[in-house]
Amino acid sequence: MVTHTGSISSTRTTAFSRTTSEAQRRATVNEALKRERHFRTKIENAEFGIKDVAAKDSSITLKQLFDGLESDYRIRGMLTARNKSNIKMLRTAFKETSRALSVTSAQIDNFIERRQKEKYAPNTINRMTGMLALSYKLDVNRKELDAHNFPRIRHLSETGNERTGFLAKRNFALCMPCYLPTLLTSRCSPISVRGARMKSPL
Predict the structure, then answer these.
(1) Burial class (CB in 10 A: 0-12, 13-18, 19+), 16
(2) How distant, in Å, are the alpha carbons of 13, 20, 32, 34 from that of 27?
(3) Average pLDDT value for residue range 169-186
(4) Average pLDDT, the chain
(5) Which of 26, 64, 75, 76 has the most CB atoms lying inside 10 A of its own CB?
(6) What is the DSSP string of 108-163?
(7) What tens digit of pLDDT does each residue of 23-71 get?
(8) 91 with 66: CB under 8 angstroms?
(9) Residue 35: its H or E element
(10) pLDDT tens for residues 132-150?
(11) Quick check: 100 and 139 in contact, CB under 8 A?
(12) pLDDT given for residue 64 in this prediction
């Protein structure tokens, strides 16, 4: 009987090589899929900060924003009676328990319109809306809000609302000797630093 040992061995070697190549190809594909799953898991677990920021965004309330604003003013020595009053007005106008990102530009415009009907000057309204904008920016700086998510806040034109009729320090100094006794001149000098309107009582 004639045997073809060499031929059989060659066939087995070829089959083994093909099996090995197929196994390597599958291993490569599986590794790529594994990397993709790992990458997706990192995103879902907020290892890139995406989901984490989104979760914080949804939980931040207006009260937290206003508390942070008040704290910032206190730290910088700017928590004056006027600023306290403006923050209080913001707390009253916007429901504090609302989510910060639920506030819309339309709601802010409505707030501006109400202040206009109450005869507030544009610069006064801008101070209040500026405080609202600052409260959002402070939270963005703390990495608790995404800058792209908070509402657009309108800024009113203050043209024609400038304070006029003030004497410059030099003019004030020239006027004082003409209208004031020498005894009062030195006492009135501080007024020139604060500013005095023309034709107004000292």
Answers:
(1) exposed
(2) 21, 10, 9, 10
(3) 59
(4) 75
(5) 64
(6) HHHHHHHHHHTT--HHHHHHHHHHHHHHHHHHHHTTSS-TTTSPP------TT---
(7) 777 877 777 777 666 655 554 444 444 444 454 566 889 999 999 999 9
(8) yes
(9) helix 5-44
(10) 999 999 988 888 887 777 8
(11) yes
(12) 93
**Domains of the chain by residue range:** 12-45, 60-141, 165-202
The pair of three-digit structure tokens given for residue 171, joined into one six-digit string: 């003019």
Q: Please give the Cα distance from 72 to 81 (Å, whole number).
A: 15
Query: Alpha-carbon Rg of the chain, whole angstroms?
Result: 36
Give the pLDDT confidence score for residue 201 in this predicted structure: 46
- Predicted pLDDT at 66: 95
Bridge partners for 61 per DSSP: 99
CA pair distance 55, 60, nearest whole angstrom: 9
Measured distance CA(129)–CA(154) in Å, rounded: 8
In single-letter form, the type of residue at position 51 comes to K
What is the token pair recorded at 177? Answer: 């000797």
> Is 91 exposed, middle or buried, given 0-12, 13-18 or 19+ CB atoms closer than 10 A?
middle
Task: Decide if 115 contacts 125 (C-beta within 8 A).
Answer: yes
Give residue 63's identity as a one-letter amino acid code. K
